[in-house]
Amino acid sequence: MKDIDVNEVESISILKDASATAVYGVKGANGVILITTKRGAIGKPVLSVSATTTSKFVSKVLSKLDAYDTYLIKNAAIEREVAINEASWGDYTPLPIVQRYRNQQNLRYPEAYPNVDWLEETIKDYTFDTRANINVSGGTEFAKYFSSLAYNNQSDIFKIMDNGRGYKPGMGFDKFNFRTNLDLNLTKTTLLKFNLAGIYSRKRSPQADLGYTLLAYYQLPPNAFLPRYEDGRWGKSNNIDMRMANSAAMMANYGYSTTTSTNLTTDIGLSQKLDFITKGLSFNASLSFDNSFGSTSALVDNSSYPTKYIDPAIEDILEGEDPNKYITIGPISGSNQFTWVETPWGVNDESPGSVARRLYYQAQLNYAREFGKHDVTATGVFTREQRATGNEFQRFREDWVARATYNYDNRYLAEFNGAYNGSEKFGPAYRFAFFPSGAVGWTVSNENFMKEITWLDRLKLRYSYGLIGDDSGLSQRWLYETQWKYGGKMPFSAVGAGRSPYTIYRESVLGNPDIHWEKARKSNLGLDLTVFKNFLSANVEYFTEDRTDILLLGSQRILPPYFGSDAPTANVGRVKKNGYEVELRFNKQLGAWHFWLNTSITHAVDKIIDKEEPQLLDSHLKDEGYQIAQNRSVISFGYLNTWDDIYASTALSSNDGQRLPGDYGLLDFNGDGVLDGTKDAAPYGYSTRPQNNYNMSLGADYKGFSGMLQFYGVNNVTRNIMISNFVSNLDVAYDHTLDYWSKENPNASSFLPRWKTSASTAQYYLYDGSYLRLKTAELAYTFSGNNLKKLGLSSLKIFLNGNDLIFWSKLPDDREYGTEKYGGYPNTYRVNLGFDLKF
Amino acid sequence: MRNIVNKIKYVFLILAGSFLFGGCEEYLDQAPEAAIDPNDAYISFINFQGFTEDLYNCIVDVARCTPPTDYNFGDDTRMNVSFLLGYQFDQGNYWAWMNGSSSYFRLMPSTPAWPLLNPSEPNGRSTWWNSWYGIRKANLGLANIDKLVNATQEEKDLIKGQLYFFRAYFHFTLMRDWGGLPYIDKLLAAGDEMRYPRLNYQETALKADEDFAKAAELLPVNWDDTQAGQRTLGNNRQRISKIMALAFQGKNLLYAASPLMNQESTGDANYNVELSKKAAIVFANVIDLSNSTGMFQLQPWETYSDIFYTDKSEKIVPGGTEVIMNAPAYNRLRGGNTTGLPNCGFLPQVSNPTANYLKYWGMSNGLPIDDPNSGYDPNNPWDNRDPRFYKMIVVDGDQVCNSNAAGYDQYFQSYTGGRHRNQANNVTGYMSKKLWGLTQNKFDNVLTGGRYFYLIPIIRLSDVYLMYAEAVVNGYGTPQSSVPGNITAVQAVNTIRNRATVPDLDSKYTATKEAFMEQLIIERAVELSFENLRWNDLRRWLRNGDPRYLDKTELLFDRDPVTQKAINFQERLIVRRTVTERNNWLPFPLDYVSIYPEFKQNPGW
């Protein structure tokens, strides 16, 4: 969805209740987002050209302390823990040395005492993207067309140094989108639609693992080494921990790879009115064929690059000592010691989905007829889909859906759907299942007794209830049969001929022939209201869902360990969900000004009812009864400030001798007299998914000017961001530790991290994940009128807008979901400047 | 109105008709080429042996589970790095076995949890998962053994023998660390009622004993002498054989007889005489068979290191002449802990031998260092020691790399203030070179050549001799006892000492059972040092919490600037291990002991 060009899109609508999504079969089980692309209209051809240039900046980032501050906190941590771990004293750094990291007194100091801001070194302050689009649409009685071509160039925010090896690694992304939508009226009753669209993209990136660069940005210590020394050698530590990799060197020196991806989608649709059989009958058929292909080529540079490491002790050497003892020069070794190799283009079979194909066909019979005040429609749909990525066996899907609607005088409405869906993921007895749904509605405002009430434009009540099947939770196939794997040989002697001639057979997955469709029972009660001549419209909905027979993979089920394998997949889960959604839209015209405000709030809470958990566990340890992905933690009630506090508190189950004043006092949640990290972990805060989503956009137009702001926020969410101070005993600490606990500062906001010993951080890193974002702000001016017509233009709009401009939150940084452990690609905010003109 | 109703009927008829086509099932059928017939694995010897060889994949090479792996948890090694398993065990935190970092037991391997198909990828190694998987697989094979019709009796026996061995071996691997278990001797289906109670240790061990005995009966001494083994002539050393099965049968019985297990099963904290005798008889059989067939022999002293590593050729698997069982050869370069060398070695985090442990190496005259006549000089602690000291331990000043390119790292400097005496490299003053030779480092470039390869023995002949001695003295009563027709306990110990050119035990140590046991314990500490045995031994002797074995110490000394000799020796405590009664067994993960009450958690956890 992210690859679709915005200029091709006519409208986007969202279908949520069971009745509306029934036609889409199983794929609609979690709702449907319907994107409709533009089609031509009868009239003169309209040519539209637009272009935008964007500058990107990194959003809120995790603040690492510099070397000086890190050493001071490390020293404080060591002083505290020396009582229980004498060995930590060996890592204490005397204050005069610490000061050298900040007061770089001579030219050698920056090399011996590096104090590197890795964010500065690896990430650019800003970078530019460009987008351009040209499209034309028009039509005659016979044919209507819409055609669009777009170009998008993105550059990346990583800095890549020059490696002096004869090639430039570089990073960049170029993409072309094109689309042509044709509507041909073959006869008065036959309409042929033809859509052809494609995406071609080309990406260039360094061969080095992007993960290493991000790790540097988050966890590489500031005092590790310089990215590059004066003599051109790259920094490299003797410590081979993965966080100590010199990402600047890795990005620059390992060559690059270029990947292209081509996507082609075609849709052919035929609509034929069958009024000659019976009035109101029509037939649609459609066929889609999509194909993706990717290829890749690379410049492979595996030869080593010159490295250097300077031990800070070099500045304090004794008389007559050889300084080279403290400088480690990395040897150049490797197979291609001074050259790199360009590999030819080949199929890109590494990225999943880069090579894929899909065939989809559908036949639909529609009936729509009015009989006086009775308005009846009926539809029958048959769909099949087969697709495959790479060289896997094709995946199949088949759906049969029937739908009938009845409308009396636009006041009383009723719908009924029946879907018969088939999935290849289940065994022969369970492949197809029947899922009915229905809805009723009452447009109250059309009633006679409501005609008096002039301030009420529209009032409609609706209710839908249905059963939907879902198999999307199961990504593996053929789980209804036990599967075997064949391959590999034991190495009984060291190499080659000594390898065993017997090829291994093993059960790889245990099958369950009874696996069947997950079932979701959804109900949705809604109210639509418009008042005061469109001044205010409101939609209010209340929804519930009861999902049963949820498939749990073997690895998620708990069987006694002596079963000897993951259990087979089974339909043993159950989750209930309910929530409400309120949407308000205000609209006011005051003279030449027009104001509008749209706001919505969604609240949704789920609860796990059944999950096949070990029954003897305490209820606070079970997932049942709580939200999916509920955060859990051992809970602290404050600091233990003195030794008296420690002796008076509950003992730890393990490592009780490791406690020190300044540790958190922990709650013995299960009351057994012992603090155990596993047994006393209780649900804390919320789940990682927000319960509430808020959205507000507001804007005003005046003559040609228009402006708008959009805010987006969430709350009732907790995120566990693992900020690892002194991870792997490296000198890296983060700014939350600046206000650390000490005897003099017992009300500190942060604990004092441990150096070589460990202590529980309780719920400290469970952050309140609520945030409010200024998602979009735009100022635009549309020229119109005669001046424009003289230039041949029908309209010209120029705009300045920004995305994700401001981020208000208690979170330590602005990072994507799912990147809590090591960190992910940093979020950016953008400022765009562009124009849009129509001929 | 009728028209309307008719039309509506008509419409619904059409719709209903579409359902008649309902479910073209074949469209959604699985592609036929996707399936492997489950019976394929059993139809011929070649296939069934392929099925069985997956079980070798489950034997855990404790040194190669996850770099770095820590595998010595007694009083023998120490490194001050908190994620090493030994460090956590020193604090009494046995829960740490479940973590991925440095634990070969581990519950959290990389996904998927169960052993990987690819034998060259050792990261899936975990005794917990591998053993349960292996038990199931052995039962699966035995349940389907009758499908093997197209094979000779010899071939059927080979398969059955291997399956029985593995079923018992994996139960042993689990019970040794976690205690008594349900003994699973049939294939379980997911729908079965699974409420098997945990048996006590001896019950479980006796069931395993039956399987080991069956295996020993069915298996040959040497696969090279069988018809089926001709296909793999010369590469059969690591396949399960009679002597391997007997050696484990004995070890299993000796463990069941040991004080901890005996106390758990019968309440008596001494050796179980019955089981000790049984063990002794089995070990005697192993020694006899090894001698008569020449299959295994004690490694000669000159080539002692062949037991552990080889750097001659990439085609040789280490083991020498005496290793009865070691794990099949995986990625040669991976792993390494406990016995690496600073900067020269493969990984910086290595566990160092502790000073307290090195006191077990006696003097070259055969006396322990605390004997008044030993001649031990605390100011020259490294002079005139047991020859094994010089083969196994690296002391200050020793050369550790052949190549000059190592520069300042070519010689070990562990004096106070020395280049290698710091928290990152060495905290006790000693290193071990039992598993590493002089050329195993990044400067001599032998690692990348693929010639160097080390494997920790799982069981070797020296261990059998010492276990024999232990079983005899506790089963038959005195150090001079023996299994009728075989060597005495004292002779067994002396054989091992003599091989290392150490004189026989002095008579004052062979006079009583107690004195002899103390020396036997010391002999095991020395001969089998750093081979993942000490912690198991201490536990089973109920000595894990014994104050004699709690302190881990370092040796501090200076280097005389003139003579370059080590002077001013001082022993200092690094850590006192936290050991309480519950630290005799590992805890089960919380989920598994919460399913039904008969599967109980180990006491204290």
Which properties best describe this structure?
heterodimer; A: 839 residues; mainly beta; 22-stranded antiparallel barrel; 3-stranded mixed beta sheet; 38 strands; 47% strand; globular; B: 605 residues; mainly alpha; Serine Threonine Protein Phosphatase 5, Tetratricopeptide repeat; two-stranded antiparallel sheet; 16 helices
User: Which ranges of chain B are low-confidence, i.e. pLDDT below 50, for 5 or more consecutive residues?
Assistant: 16-23, 109-113, 342-347
Instruction: Give me the CATH fold name of the domain at 16-269 in chain B.
Output: Serine Threonine Protein Phosphatase 5, Tetratricopeptide repeat
Oligomerization state: heterodimer
CATH class of the domain at 16-269 in chain B: Mainly Alpha
Proportion of β residues of chain A?
A: over 45%
Helix/strand class of chain A:
mainly beta
**SSE pattern of chain B, N- to C-terminal:** HHEHHHHHHHEEEHHEEHEEHHHHEE
Major sheet size, sense and barrel closure of chain B? 2 strands, antiparallel
Mean pLDDT of chain B: 85
Explain how this protein is built.
The complex is a heterodimer of chains A (839) and B (605). Chain A has a 22-stranded antiparallel β-barrel. In chain A, helix 6 runs antiparallel to helix 7 (247-253). Chain A is 8% helix and 47% strand. Chain A is mainly beta and 839 residues long. With 605 residues, chain B is mainly alpha-helical. Chain B has a domain at 16-269: Serine Threonine Protein Phosphatase 5, Tetratricopeptide repeat (Alpha Horseshoe). Chain B is built from 16 helices and ten strands. Chain B has helices at 2-20, 45-53, 85-90, 127-143, 153-178, 201-218, 242-257, 259-266, 273-293, 355-358, 387-392, 446-449, 461-475, 489-499, 513-527, 534-540, and strands at residues 77-78, 309-310, 323-326, 352-353, 393-394, 431-432, 453-454, 457-460, 551-559, 566-576. In chain B, a hairpin with a 6-residue loop joins strand 9 and strand 10 (566-576). In chain B, helix 6 (201-218) packs antiparallel against helix 7. The radius of gyration of chain B is 28 Å and the shape is globular. The chains are: A mainly beta (839), B mainly alpha (605).
